[in-house]
Structures are given as structure tokens and as C-alpha cells.
Automatic annotation (TrEMBL):
This is Glutathione S-transferase family protein. Residues 1-75 form the GST N-terminal domain. It comes from the Bacteria. Residues 79-197 form the GST C-terminal domain. PANTHER family: GLUTATHIONE S-TRANSFERASE GSTA (PTHR44051:SF8), GLUTATHIONE S-TRANSFERASE-RELATED (PTHR44051). It holds the Pfam family GST_N_2.
Length: 197
């Protein structure tokens, strides 16, 4: 059985959501970043961490790629053009949404106070809005890549939810509607319910 270390309010949400979509059994071990349980598995202390038997996989995107490839769902076949396009979308979401939100978080509360530059937030908000519009222009169907949901959709939706919590406006109507439909998925709701356990 898979073991997922992390918290629902972190990028572990992405991994848990994919596991719920896949219908694969897992054990969720609630653990914060740099906790003893996490640091014992991942010296950086970052979450999420996936334990598969004696093997450890850190990083939400690496974990999701492994799970999608292993189970042959929520991904296109390796070596296909569609997979390369999926990977391009995934990296675009990570570079243009996730990284912007992470930078804002670092300067908002993660870095030591003397290292924070709060004045960067308006610039990051502008960049985020511009990048949302670019992503919306790339959407070709009900999901980012058309008719098939992939791990890129899970990462994008997680970022859109993160943006709301971080008070980054999501004013692109196409992506706002897309996020609402993704949040309506049963697997998404099951993971969100884990936060109350």
C-alpha cells in the first residue's frame, strides 16, 4: 500500500487527489514539513513524500508522474507527442503558476522576516494574472489538453485554489469555470474532507 506523508493544505493534496481518482488504496500520514517523520524519509524535509515499500519518492509532480505511469491513467503514453504536450503543460503550470505563488508565500511568511520583500507581491499578482490568460488560451477542451484529464489538470486546479487562499484574484472566467468543475469531482471532495479528520 502507498503511504503519503504531508498535509491536505500542502502539495500533498495533489497526490492524494490522484490516488483517489485512481481508486488506489493508500495510507495518509499527516506530517508537516521538516517534521521528524518527513525528515527521516526526505532530508530536505519537504512534503509530500510517497513511500512505496522501502522506496521513497519526494516531490508532488514526480510522485504523480510515477503513479500515472504505473497505473496507465491520467497521462498519455511515454514517448507520444501527446505526452510531450502534457509534460509541456505540466511544466508551464509549475513555472508560471506554482512558482509565482510559492515566491509570494516565501516573501509573505516563509522566509526569515529580514529576508522578505513584501513589495514584490503586486508584481507577482500581475504576472500570475498574465500567466492565467496564457494558460486559458492553451486550453482545448473541458480539461487543459482536451477530453482527457491528466496530472496537469490536478496541478493547475491546486494552483487555482492556492491562489484564492493567497488572495490572488482568478479573474479569467474560463479558468474560474474550469476550477469550479474540477472542484466538483468526487475525488477532490474526498481529499478535502480529509482535512477535518
Amino acid at each position: 500500500m502507498y503511504k503519503v506523508y504531508g498535509s491536505v493544505t500542502s502539495r500533498a493534496f495533489r497526490v492524494l487527489w490522484l490516488l483517489e481518482e485512481l481508486g488506489e488504496p493508500y495510507e495518509f500520514i499527516k506530517a508537516g514539513p521538516r517534521s521528524d517523520a518527513v525528515t527521516a524519509l526526505n532530508p530536505s524535509g519537504k512534503i509530500p513524500v510517497l513511500q512505496v515499500g522501502d522506496d521513497i519518492i519526494p516531490d508532488s509532480t514526480a510522485i504523480m508522474t510515477y503513479l500515472a505511469d504505473k497505473h496507465g491513467k491520467f497521462t498519455y503514453p511515454a514517448g507520444s507527442v501527446a505526452r510531450a504536450q502534457q509534460d509541456a503543460l505540466t511544466h508551464a503550470v509549475l513555472d508560471e503558476l506554482d512558482a509565482v505563488l510559492w515566491t509570494a508565500a516565501r516573501h509573505g511568511f516563509i522566509l526569515p522576516e529580514e529576508q522578505r520583500v513584501p513589495a514584490v507581491k503586486p508584481s507577482l499578482m500581475w504576472e500570475f494574472a498574465r500567466n492565467l490568460d496564457r494558460l486559458a488560451d492553451r486550453m482545448v477542451g473541458p480539461f487543459l489538453q482536451g477530453e482527457q484529464m491528466t496530472i496537469a489538470d490536478i496541478i493547475a486546479t491546486h494552483c487555482l485554489n492556492w491562489a484564492i487562499g493567497a488572495k490572488f484574484p482568478v479573474e479569467n472566467e474560463k479558468l474560474s469555470d474550469y476550477a469550479k468543475s474540477m472542484r466538483a469531482r468526487d475525488a477532490f471532495k474526498r481529499v478535502r474532507a480529509l482535512d477535518g479528520d
